[in-house]
Amino acid sequence: MSADAPDAAALVAACAAEVAAVAGDAGGATRRRLLVVAHALALAGRDLAAGAAPAGDPALAAAIRAGRHDAELAQVATRLRDGVRARVEIAHPGYAAR
């Protein structure tokens, strides 16, 4: 990609804005459908911009169930809490400030 070309996150965000603008001119069910698409595109754009991590860590979950992190549960809980906060901020910007 050239240096002046927008990245994927910027393209998806621009598409979300355009779909939302078109939805403003539509009515009824079409408007609602377009707004759902705009919301999904905006979420995808935030995921791309944040470099979103996978939803979970199966190996960590298995280790916790096996008791391999019992001595450091506070640190593991902090790590998990921070991950959840980051994912919530992507899905619902500003939610934590409420």
Looking at this protein, list some descriptive labels:
98 residues, mainly alpha, 2 domains, elongated
Could you please describe the fold and organization of this structure?
The chain is an all-alpha fold and 98 residues long. It has two domains: 1-52; 55-98, no CATH class. The chain is 69% helix and 0% strand. The chain has helices spanning 8-25, 28-50, 58-65, 73-91. Helix 1 (8-25) packs antiparallel against helix 2. The longest helix is centred in the middle third of the chain and has 23 residues, at 28-50.
Fraction in helix: 55-70%
* Tally of distinct domains: 2
How many helices? The count is 4
Structural classification: mainly alpha
For the largest beta-sheet, the strand count, sense and barrel status come to: none
What are the segments in which pLDDT stays under 50 over at least 5 consecutive residues? none
Number of strands: 0
- Averaged pLDDT, please? 85
CA-atom Rg in angstroms: 19 Å
Query: In one word, what is the shape?
Result: elongated
**Assembly state (oligomeric):** single chain
Helix-strand sequence: HHHH
